[in-house]
Write the structure tokens for this entry.
Amino acid sequence: MKPITFTDDNFETEVLQSDKPVLVDFWAVWCGPCKLIAPFVEELAAELEGKAKVGKLDVDNNQESAIKYGVRSIPTILIFKNGKVHDTIIGAVPKVQLKQKLESAL
């Protein structure tokens, strides 16, 4: 399964109203560290299919969500549970760290 593309328009339904934990990767096309973690995000989307939602939000095209959640540097990963931020990861981190944080929300 591919990561979901989150946008300002679908954020409420896909993330905040989700009955599963959601990992949102706030990223941009020009961001080097974002490219480093992109494969990890894709792998987690496949590994945790059915247990959690995993997706990406392009901050250049969806500034409203980025501003609302105080995203000042990218990559920023927010893990949502029951419509609220459960955990925050800033910067490129190893896949195992992303997976542990997301699994702690399951």
Notes: Residues 45 and 89 are 17 Å apart (CA to CA). The chain has one domain: 4-103. The helical segments are 11-16, 32-47, 63-68, 95-103.
